Amino acid sequence: MDGYDKLVPSPTPETQPYWDGLNEGRLRLQCCADCGKIRHYPRPVCDACWSMNVDWVNASGRGTVHSWTITHYAFHPGFKGDLPYILLTVDLPEGVRMNAQARGIDASQLRVGLPVVVAFDRVKDDLTLPVFEAG
Amino acid sequence: MAMGSSLREAGAITGVGETKYLRGTDRSALSFQLEASLNAIRDAGLKPSDIDGLIPYGHGAVAEDFITNFGIKDLRFSATTPMGGASAVASIQCALAVIQAGICNHVLLSLGRTGYSGGRIGTRVQQMPQFRVIGEFEMPLGAIAPAQLYAPMARRHMELYGTTSRQLAEIAVTTRYHASLQTNATMKNPITIEDHQSSRMISDPLHLLDCSLESDGGAAVVISALDRAKDMAKRPIMVMGVAEGHPDSPSAITQRPDLTTLGLAKAAPKAFAMAGVTHSDIDVAEVYDCFTYIVMCQLEDLGFCKKGEGGAFVQDGALGLNGRLPVNTHGGLLSQAHMAGMNHIVELARQLRGEAAAQVPDAEIGLVTGYGDMGDGALAIMRRA
Fold first, then answer.
1. Exposed (0-12), middle (13-18) or buried (19+): which is A13, by Cβ within 10 Å?
2. Chain B residue numbers touching A85 (CB-CB < 8 A)
C-alpha cells in the first residue's frame, strides 16, 4: 500500500500522544499530573504515587549514550537494507531512557556518555520514528 | 520436615524424561511434549493416570491434551507460570506449593516444541503478550529479537567492567565440550575460542556462537509429595530451596535502573536461605544459557562472584567438569538443545542421581536456574536423598 515494510506500532489511547508528538517533531514524555514524576514508556499509572492523572511535557531532546548494539542480522525482512545498524540506549536528562537508531554516528565513536540529540525521521505518512545524531 | 510456610523439601523430583533432540522434524510439538511426559512418568515408576497436577510450559499442550491422552480421571490442578525461559524452574515452586497445600501428589512439568522446524523463535517473540511494550516502542525501531534486546546489557557490562568477548567464548567452548560427551545433543563438534571469535556477528557484541539453538523435541519432570517419593522407582532428588524473581522494569530492559542485574538477583538470597546451603556447597550448576552473557551475569547474580567479576570467574575452563564450578554439564541451550531450561532440570536430577552422561564425581548438591523474557529469573537448589 504505502510501501513501508517494517514493523509498525499499534498505539493505545494512553500512548497516542507520544506518537502524535513525534509526528509534530516533538519528543513528548508522560508526566504524573499529581507528583510530577516523568515516566517512559507511556502507561496508565504513576508507579510513585499511583495517580492516573497524566500530563505531557516536551523533552529537551538531548541525551547521553548508556549502551548500544550494532545489528548485523535482519530479524525482520524490512530491516535488511539497513544492515548494519546501531541501536542506542540513551539516558535523557529527564530521568528516563530511550531506544532509537543512530544516524550519522560511526561505530568507532561509540562510548558510554557520548552526547546525542534526538531527530525525527518521518518514515511514512502517519509514522515518525525518533533517531539520535551526535550532539 | 520443615513446617509452616517454607517449601523446603516439600517434594522431590521423582521422574525425568526427554525425547531425542533434533534440528528438523515432521512431528508436532504436542507429540514431543506427550512423549517426553510419558518418559518422565515411566522413569518415576508411575502410570500416566497417576498424574494429578499439570504445569505445562506456556504456548504448548494444555490440561485437556493430557486428560484426553493419558486418561486422567481426577486432575486436581492445572496452571502455567508465564516467565519465558524462567517458567520451568518457577513451576517447581508452584508444584511444591500445591503439593504442600495437599492438593496434589504428582505434578507433571512438561515442554514440547518445534523451535527449529516450526515457527522460528526469533519471529515468534513479536506475537507474545508480555512483549506488548517493546512491540510498540522498540520493535518498530529495529530492536526485535532477544539477541538485540540483550546485547546492550552485555555491552554495558563490557564498558563498565572490562568484560571481553573472549571471556564469553569460554562459556560457549566449555558448553560445547559437555555436549560432545552426550548421546542426546544436537551440536557435538568441539569448538575453540577462535571459532567463537570468527563466527559471524549477530548483534554486537553477540556472535553466532554466543546464541542458543533452535530445536525440536520435548522434556518433562515429575515432582512428587515427599511421602510418595520415598517409595518410587528412582532415588528422589529433594528440592531444598526454590524462588522466582522479577527484575525492575520487566517489560523493557531499556528502562531498567541497572542493565547488568537480572530478576535472579532477587530470587537467589531467598532460595539459598531456604536451602540452608552456601555457594561452596554447590557441586554442579545448570544455568539457563540462551546467550553466553546471560550465564555469566547469572553467576554474578547468584553470588558466585561479585558484580563485574563474572568474566574472570568463567575463564580458564572454570566451568568444566573439573573446574571450580561445573556448569551446563549436558551442553545446555547453546549446544544440547533449546528446551527452555526443562532440559536443565532433567540434567540436574541425573547429576544428583549419579546417572549423567558427563558425570560430576560424587555430586551431592546442585542448582538450576531459569531466565526468561526481559529478565525474569528462578532458582532451585536440590540434593540427592
1. exposed
2. 142
What does the pLDDT look like over B193-240, one tens digit per residue? 999 999 999 999 999 999 999 999 999 999 999 999 888 999 999 999
Residue of B nearest to A68 (CA): B152
The mean per-residue pLDDT over the stretch A87-109 comes to 98
What domains can you pick out in chain A, each with its CATH number? 10-58 (no CATH), 60-135 (2.40.50.840)
In chain A, which residues have their Cβ closer than 8 Å to the Cβ of B147? 73, 75
Chain B residues lying within 8 Å of A66, measured CB to CB: 152, 156, 259
Cell 541451550, residue? B333
A95 min Cα distance to partner chain B (Å): 10
- Predicted TM-score (pTM) above 0.95: yes
Q: Which CATH superfamily is domain B11-118+212-384 in?
A: Thiolase/Chalcone synthase (3.40.47.10)
- Are residues B140 and A98, on separate chains, in Cβ contact within 8 Å? no
In the sheet that B77-78 helps form, which strands lie side by side, from edge to edge? B77-78, B53-56, B106-114, B216-225, B11-18, B237-245, B376-384, B365-372, B284-286
Rounded to whole angstroms, the Cα distance separating B274 from B380 reads 10
The domain segmentation of chain B, as residue ranges, is 11-118+212-384
Q: Per-residue pLDDT tens for B67-120?
A: 999 999 999 999 999 999 999 999 999 999 999 999 999 999 999 999 999 865
Shortest distance between the Cα of A55 and any Cα of chain B, in A, equals: 19
Work out the pLDDT band at B124, boundaries 50, 70, 90: low
| Interface with chain B: mutation pick from A10, A14, A41, A128, highest number of B CBs within 10 Å | A41
Rg for chain A, CA atoms, rounded: 16
What is this model's ipTM?
0.97
8 A C-beta contact, residue A114 and residue A65: yes
The pLDDT score that the predictor gives to residue A82 is 96
Q: Which of B148, B159, B160 sits opposite A87 (nearest CB)?
A: B148
Alpha-carbon span B297 to B167, nearest angstrom: 12
The answer to whether B161 contacts chain A (CB < 8 Å) is no
